[in-house]
Design goal:
SmpB, SsrA-bd_prot, alpha+beta, Small Protein B, Chain: A, 166 residues, RNA-binding, SsrA-binding protein
C-alpha cells in the first residue's frame, strides 16, 4: 500500500511541476483594469523555449496587436539562450504570433477597436509541455483610480488581519 501512495504523490508532484508560472506581469494589473482574459498558445523557436523555462522572460513592456487577422505579441523580451551560439540564437524582442481561435480574435478585435481598450500580456505558464500566454483586455487606469484600488486593497487586508486576530 505504501508503494501505491508514493506513486500517487510522485504523480501529483509531477503534475504540479508541469503546471507552473514562468513569468508574470504584475505591473499590468496595477496600470490597467483587466476586463477579460484569454489563454493563448505562443509560437516559439527552440532557444526561446529553453530561455522561458529558465525564467528569462520579461512581459513588463509587452503589448498585443491584431494584424491581418492574427494576434501578435510585441516588445516582450526573452533573453538569448546561454548555451547556444550567436548563429542559432533568437532575436530577444522579435514579434511572436499568438495562437487563438478565429472567433476569439474577432471578439477581441471588436472590443479593442470600439472602446479604445488594449491587449496586455499578463502571464506565461507551463501547461504540461506547452507554454501558454494569458492576455488581458485592459482599460488604462488614471492616477486617482490607482490610488482608490490601492486603498481598497489595503482595507481588505486590514479587515482580514482583524478577522484573524478574533
Amino acid at each position: 500500500m505504501a508503494k501505491g501512495g508514493a506513486k500517487k504523490a510522485a504523480a501529483a508532484a509531477a503534475r504540479a511541476a508541469a503546471n507552473r508560472m514562468l513569468a508574470d506581469n504584475r505591473q499590468a494589473r496595477h496600470q490597467y483594469e483587466i476586463l477579460e482574459t484569454l489563454e493563448t498558445g505562443i509560437e516559439l523557436v527552440g532557444t526561446e523555449v529553453k530561455s522561458i523555462r529558465n525564467g528569462k522572460a520579461n512581459l513588463r513592456d509587452g503589448f498585443c496587436l491584431i494584424r491581418n487577422g492574427e494576434l501578435q505579441l510585441h516588445n516582450v523580451h526573452i533573453s538569448p539562450h546561454t548555451h547556444a551560439g550567436n548563429y542559432f540564437n533568437h532575436d530577444p524582442l522579435r514579434t511572436r504570433k499568438l495562437l487563438a481561435h478565429r472567433r476569439e480574435i474577432d471578439k477581441f478585435r471588436g472590443l479593442v477597436d470600439q472602446k479604445g481598450l488594449t491587449l496586455i500580456p499578463l502571464s506565461l505558464q507551463l501547461k504540461g509541455s506547452w507554454i501558454k500566454l494569458t492576455i488581458g483586455l485592459g482599460k488604462g487606469r488614471k492616477l486617482h483610480d490607482k490610488r482608490a484600488a490601492e486603498k481598497e486593497k489595503q482595507s481588505k487586508k486590514d479587515v482580514k488581519a482583524a478577522m484573524e486576530r478574533y
